[in-house]
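Record N-acetyltransferase, 355 aa.
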Amino acid sequence: MPTIQQLPFQGTLPDSFFQIPGRLYHLLPYQLEENEPATRALFAQEAERNDIVLFTDHVGLRLVGIFPREGATAFFGYWETVDDATLNRAAFGQLAAEARRRGYARVQGPLNFNTYHAYRLRLGGPPSWQQFNREPVNPAYYPELLAQLGFRPALTFESRLIAPATVPAVYQNKAELLAALGGLPYEFIPLTPEAWVRHETELFALVHQIFSANPAYQPIPESQFRQLYNAQYAAKLCPHTSVLVREQARGRLVALSLCHPNYAPLHLGPEPPDFRRDYPRLPHKTLLAKTVGVHPDFRQQQLMSYLGAYGMLPFRELYEQVIFCLMRTDNFSLHFTDGLPSETARYALFEQELG
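=>
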């Protein structure tokens, strides 16, 4: 029987926690994006809201049990492992036993504390693009391991690549939306770092209002939001396709679209991307449509489609192709690309009921 240590988080993580992924990904054509100082800081912050337990053999497996102080769902995250069903059965068995002892009804994951951070598994082999910034990536055997352990997909997602040959058809398909943009009762605010700073407090509220009803969403403190999403984050956005939408009648923000180039081919490592510096260096120009959303009070008004059309206005001058990233398969945003030829990658968040 494999020896799995069960280590309650008490302010520090063992060095092995950050060594295990390197052994798993060094021969793969994509890499796990993990910043050690930021991860250590996040654990310290989240320990104020969750009990955290690490399960590991310090060599080939790490697994973090996240036990929120409220709710019936426990989570697992930061799961990285060799292809060993016995080893994982031992680790997940301990996690399930701990969750039952604490009174949870189910376990979901992988989810690194909340949906503002990494979550989901990529299903199947790697797509042609290999990896875009902050895309869930993992060895291909991960989903099958979870299936063997009794986990099933709870939520599914898609990314769709619209290749250069399809771009003319997109413009033909969306011609009416493009023509209507100038006559809408909304102001479109290009999302530059300066604009982000001006609207930072409103943005925190808007993001919560847009996404709080999503499955698996958990709120985070404004201080954590500002650590993740700030002027440095805004500097990587494409200022020509990223936008805030303001209602002209009352002046409040009602929608947003966050897009940026795929910087992954530059292998920047921990260095934050910067559109002005890095866009000219890209060997291929792929736009990532990353986060698009509309305030609940303004849905059913085609705003989601108009956000897509806004991004199309400068697209042909700046990019060769676009990936619509990580759309939930039951979400309205998926319809913007329905009927268009695309390459699709699929992902899932998994769940196990605890009997």
